[in-house]
What we know:
By secondary structure, this protein is of the alpha/beta class.
Amino acid sequence: MSYRHIRFPDSGQKISISNNRMVVPDNPILGFVEGDGIGPDITRAALRVWNAAVEKAYGGRRKVHWAELYLGEKASGIYDGDYFPAETLEAIKELIVAIKGPLTTPVGGGFRSLNVSLRQELDLYACVRPVQYFQGVPSPMRRPEDVDVVIFRENTEDVYSGIEYQSGTPENRKLAKFLREEMGVDFFEDAGLGVKPISPFGSKRLVRKAIQYAIDNGRASVTLVHKGNIMKFTEGAFRNWGYEVAREEFGDQTISEDELWEKYDGVAPEGKVVIKDRIADITFQLMQLRPAEFDVLATMNLNGDYLSDALAAEVGGMGIAPGANMADHVAVFEATHGTAPKYANLDKVNPSSLMFSGCMMFDYIGWREVTTLINEAFVRTVGAGIVTYDFARQMEGATEVPTSGFADALIERL
Ligand code: NAP
């Protein structure tokens, strides 16, 4: 396909899919979107770290060839006011793997969230957020090292699907009349109305991905998080469909918590992933009191959104939390925080969220050595007290450095 403004570097090769598996060349073209606000600052810093770590890991045998793609304000400047150019979507599909900085979303009006549009257009149905502790990072927990979970949040359904009817509109009145007269339910006059679709298809593909991840990465358990005691036919159904996938598709590799206690006295047999479920509210509490009991979490959209930010706070906050939105193969890795506009172009914020999202991306393409190098260098850098402002204000005697300075210090320690 030919693009108006996007250029793929001639020297790189595209990732491809063969027999349902990704084939990654040693010179892959990966897409990146700089993002708005602090996006350019953190992207510049992270690109330098990634390139240095790849060079260090493979001594020139492997190299990423970056292709810049455009979304948000930068896209609007290039594509005559279009914040969400169709060719960027095409390029992501073609390249399969891309990474993006944060994008501005207007609150309560204006255009639709670009992040939500991206997830929907590319059907990136799983939002994956690993939450792990790095030695030296300031944390409010007594034992932050016990926090080591990967959240798989369903990205396309739930109250986020945009089926909402504003109070006082003809559509709202029509639906309210139907619900009252035909379905025999009641609620306060002029209530805004929203619909919460949770399907077997959406739930099962998310839980399938979470279980596969747990198996591939030697994780001990997958917990289905839900509020099924109250919302029985949506959240409760998610739980039931989750157990169904485990039983029907991963019967040899998984075991339910009930079976674990009935047959094995609570000790999982070698090679089996335990499938359990917990009510959402108690999960928030347990993740503070006994985080070691959790490993992979599979959640619906809203619960997962809350849980991701709450857990990120346990290990250093949004400045370092990485994430990705994934379809079966296509994956867009992203900083989990927003554009923090008050810090835009100040070379001030922490680039680690984007940098660690890049590590997820390298793991995803099988270049795990890059992640190991960056993780170790990060611990050495923070251990030396060299941090950006967000950590500096929580640490005694730290040396505060700008975004670019943090990247320099980390690269020195690779
Ligand atoms: P935000 O941009 O995440 O910023 C909130 C606060 O988080 C910042 O003021 C800062 O805290 C801290 N923070 C964020 N990134 C940081 C970093 N890299 N290093 C250190 N601290 C960091 O949230 P927001 O102000 O609610 O949202 C701003 C815009 O971003 C909105 O348009 C929103 O829609 C958008 N957004 C985009 C995404 C995305 O693209 N994925 C996600 C969320 C929000 P302090 O003030 O305490 O220093």
